[in-house]
Amino acid sequence: MKQIQLGSSGLTVSAQGLGCMGMSTTYGPSDEQESLATLARARELGITLFDTAEVYGPFSNEKLLGKAFASTRDRVVLATKVGFKFDAAGALEMVAGRPVVSGKPAHIQAAVEGCLQRLGTDYIDLLYLHRIDPSTPIEETIAALAALVKQGKIRYIGLSEASPVTIRKAHAVHPVSAVQIEYSLFERGVEHNQVLATTRELGIGFVSYSPLGRGFLSGALNDLSSLASTDFRRFDPRFQGENLRINLRLVDGITKIAAAKGVTPSQLAIAWTQQAGTVPIPGTRRVKYLEENAAAADLILTEEELQALNDIAPFGAAAGERYAPAMMETLGH
């Protein structure tokens, strides 16, 4: 897989990364040996960017990656995220059903130390603020991260789910190398809220998480009956009732375009995010789907195909919010 520059800060990554969250949480039970085999195969395919976070598990996903890359640390780009708060027992702190976010320097510094320990490394290639704390000036948080860059504990700084105003304020303190936000044929909000335009203006790389719409765009998910009881999609607004029926019609249209091109819906959706100038990080824990996704790295869509996809899946076509109301409140600060 080709390697590209993520933004203009000097960070080189594979054209497609691997989202590792599902190996430890969110989508039901997983198997560690299967996950390790998938991570090893990703390296063989030339994938170098691996995305995790302290909250995935919590903590177990970072430990998994630390184990997987203990002997190949210098050949991978490890991206992790901090910002959520945990109680003394290691559980996510919640208030009124909403996870508690902290951008206070002391919290961020302690969180980074935990990430380093779990990843089994003395530096993090790309450290994101997972969510923005509206009660702490972003300038203070970024200054704390900049100090960690000077100490060699972080190489590059990123933001996740940040507004254009926050991106600009952060970038003025220290160069922001990447912004990570959900982006797909299913979710095109960043095209209309100035986030994508802001990153391009400032030379910041854009990383698309959930490029397959939480698996929806694979075309394989028609109802919720096959999902594990702990799979969060059972409670995702876009998978409920009338929203599900509307969104399945959207997927049907995408599937027809994929069939005409001789590729899978997943490959078509991933290629679309790449051609939009972003680095997608589709998540999977199985080698079969990893290989299918990776094959999209060199796929080029024609102008006619791009127009057809725009006609079928324009901004706002998907029914339902991205998350439940409490989680929606953590976005876009």
Write the layout of secondary structure elements.
Blueprint (H helix, E strand, L loop, with lengths): L2 E3 L6 E3 L3 E2 L12 H13 L4 E3 L8 H9 L8 E6 L11 E2 L2 E2 L5 H15 L4 E6 L8 H13 L3 E7 L3 H10 L2 E7 L12 H8 L2 E5 L31 H21 L3 H11 L3 E2 L6 H8 L8 H10 L12 H4 L5
Parallel strand pairs: 3-4, 4-5, 5-8, 8-9, 9-10, 10-11, 11-12
Antiparallel strand pairs: 1-2, 6-7
Helix pairs in contact: 1-2, 1-9, 3-4, 4-5, 5-6, 7-8, 7-10
Mean pLDDT: 96
Question: In percent terms, what proportion of residues is strand?
Answer: 5-15%
Question: According to CATH, what is the class?
Answer: Alpha Beta
CATH fold naming: TIM Barrel
CATH superfamily: NADP-dependent oxidoreductase domain
The separation of the N and C termini measures: 34 Å
Strand order of the largest sheet: 3-4-5-8-9-10-11-12
- How would the global form be characterised? globular
Q: H/E order of the elements?
A: EEEHEHEEEHEHEHEHEHHEHHH
Q: Find the count of extended strands (DSSP E, 2+ residues).
A: 12
InterPro entries: Aldo-Keto_reductase, NAD(P)_OxRdtase_dom_sf, NADP_OxRdtase_dom
GO molecular function: oxidoreductase activity
Keywords: Oxidoreductase
Protein name: Aldo/keto reductase
Report on the structure:
The protein is an alpha/beta fold and 333 residues long. The chain has one domain (3-215, 268-299): TIM Barrel. The protein is 37% helix and 14% strand. It contains eleven helices and twelve strands. The strands form three sheets. It has an eight-stranded parallel sheet, covered by helices on one side. Strands 1-2 form a two-stranded antiparallel ribbon. Helix 4 (138-150) links the parallel strand 8 (124-129) and strand 9. Helix 1 packs across helix 2, helix 1 (32-44) runs parallel beside helix 9 (287-294) and helix 4 crosses helix 5 (164-173). The longest helix is centred in the C-terminal third of the chain and has 21 residues, at 241-261. It is globular and about 50 Å long. The mean pLDDT is 96.
